[in-house]
């Protein structure tokens, strides 16, 4: 049971390098890598239960991103109520990302 979502997590290269080993492992092993770009990296999760504060790996990823400049990363949660859902795990504001990801 539970809501399943599609998630995109993209960040500038320097942000990815600052992530904990745990967060990098989570992204590399649980997501699909979008075509890498010189400016950054993007990961796509499909049909995942994305529960912030209930999953230690997801919570750790948000903790790693929290001190970073919000214009250097973006997390978009496409849940069943997408795009009108206001309580999702969306975070960051890298609107000019090379993949064109935005809500």
Structural class, by secondary structure, is alpha+beta
What level of helicity do the residues show?
25-40%
Beta strand count: 5
Identify the overall geometry.
globular
**Oligomeric grouping of the chains:** single chain
User: Over all CA atoms, what is the radius of gyration?
Assistant: 13 Å
Contiguous helical run count:
3
What about the largest sheet? Answer: 5 strands, antiparallel
The ordered H/E elements are EHHEEHEE
On the 0-100 scale, what is the average pLDDT? 89
Proportion in β-strands = 25-35%
Order of neighbouring strands in the sheet with most strands: 2-3-1-4-5
Report how far apart the termini are: 25 Å
**Uncertain spans, ≥5 residues at pLDDT below 50?**
none
What's the structural blueprint in terms of helices and strands?
Layout: E1 5-12, H1 13-18, H2 21-30, E2 32-33, E3 40-48, H3 56-65, E4 73-78, E5 91-92
Antiparallel strand pairs: 1-3, 1-4, 2-3, 4-5
What does it look like?
With about 100 residues, the protein is an alpha+beta fold. The protein is built from three helices and five strands. Strand 2 and strand 3 (about 40-50) form a beta hairpin. The longest helix is centred in the first third of the chain and has 10 residues, at about 20-30. The radius of gyration is 13 Å and the shape is globular.
Describe the structure using short key phrases.
103 residues; alpha+beta; five-stranded antiparallel beta sheet
Structure in a nutshell:
With 103 residues, the protein is an alpha+beta fold. It is 25% helix and 26% strand.
């Amino acid at each position: 049971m539970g809501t399943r979502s599609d998630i995109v997590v993209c960040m500038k290269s320097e942000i990815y390098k600052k992530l904990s080993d745990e967060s990098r492992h989570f992204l590399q092993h649980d997501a699909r890598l979008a075509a890498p770009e010189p400016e950054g990296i993007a990961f796509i999760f499909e049909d995942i239960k994305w529960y912030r504060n209930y999953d230690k790996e997801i919570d750790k990823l948000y903790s790693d991103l929290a001190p970073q400049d919000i214009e250097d990363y973006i997390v978009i949660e496409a849940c069943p109520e997408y795009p009108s859902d206001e309580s999702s795990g969306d975070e960051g504001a890298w609107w000019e990302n090379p993949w064109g990801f935005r809500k």
